[in-house]
Structure formats: structure tokens, C-alpha cells
Specification:
The chain is built from four helices and six strands; from the N terminus they run ααβββαβαββ. By secondary structure, the chain is α+β, with helices and mostly antiparallel strands. A hairpin with a 2-residue loop joins strand 5 and strand 6.
């Protein structure tokens, strides 16, 4: 992609680690699912319930905060399974909208989310290390989301 190693390292140091993930795992407002294939971590999804953004007028929002698939598992259905799980978890929680921020320079991810019915509704800044980037906000009513793409 277009990110420097320095900014990626700083971002990871600030957002990942045993203490940070421990707090996230213990937070009842977060839904986290791991995708394992043959006892190997293939990816994960993290949904934050009640997390709002100015671009989405929701009374009970859910943010798809993270959805990652290891490179060696991409193209094998892992992302689709995690996305279906996120949609199901948002609906089961009573969330009225599902939203996410996606880097404007990631057309593959934008197309993926479009397949599920998420549409561009706004934007917000995203700090990656020392660099401010622009994330596009995509969202849909949970009742309108397609669980199969």
C-alpha cells in the first residue's frame, strides 16, 4: 500500500498489545470473533456497540471497528464469514445502523462493503502514526444489510 513502515509501526504500537486487547475483550460493548482455519488464526472481526459517528443518524449504532484477514487467507471466504458474523451480531444486539470507516485508498475493501449494502455517507480523519489520512464512512440500516454477498 502507500503507508510508511514508521507510521504503521507507530499505529500498531498505539492500538495493539496485550493490555489494549485485554481491555477490549473484557468490554461487554464489544463483539470480537476470531476466524481460525486448521488451528491457525486466519482473521478477526471487532464490532463496537453503541459507537456513534456524526455521519450516521442512529439511535443504536454499531461500528465495524476492525475486520482483518491474514494475507495467506485472503480470497478463501474468511472475510465473507466475518462480515456475515458482524451483520448478525449488530442485528442481534438491536443496533439500527452498522457503520465503518475505510481508507479512501482501499478500493478493494470499499467494493467488498458495497456488496453487503453499505453506502458512502461521509468521511472523517484517521491518524496512522504521524500521518492524517481520510477514511470514508460507509453505513446501512441493519435491516437493509445483505447477509450473503
Amino acid at each position: 500500500m502507500h503507508n510508511s513502515a514508521e507510521n504503521m509501526e507507530l499505529h500498531c504500537a498505539n492500538n495493539f498489545g496485550a493490555e489494549i486487547q485485554g481491555l477490549e475483550l473484557s468490554d461487554p460493548r464489544q463483539v470480537i470473533q476470531l476466524a481460525e482455519e486448521s488451528a491457525v488464526l486466519a482473521g478477526f472481526m471487532q464490532l463496537r456497540l453503541g459507537q456513534a459517528t456524526a455521519s450516521v443518524d442512529a439511535s443504536r449504532p454499531a461500528e465495524l471497528h476492525r475486520i482483518y484477514v491474514s494475507r495467506e487467507w485472503q480470497g478463501r471466504g474468511v472475510a465473507q464469514e466475518l462480515m456475515r458474523s458482524a451483520i448478525a451480531a449488530a442485528a442481534a444486539s438491536g443496533s439500527d445502523w452498522l457503520w465503518l470507516g475505510v481508507w479512501e485508498r482501499n478500493p478493494k475493501a470499499i467494493a467488498f462493503y458495497n456488496k453487503y449494502g453499505l453506502k458512502l455517507v461521509g468521511e472523517h480523519p484517521f491518524m496512522l502514526g504521524h500521518e492524517q489520512q481520510r477514511d470514508l464512512i460507509m453505513a446501512a440500516r441493519t435491516e437493509d444489510l445483505s447477509s450473503v454477498a
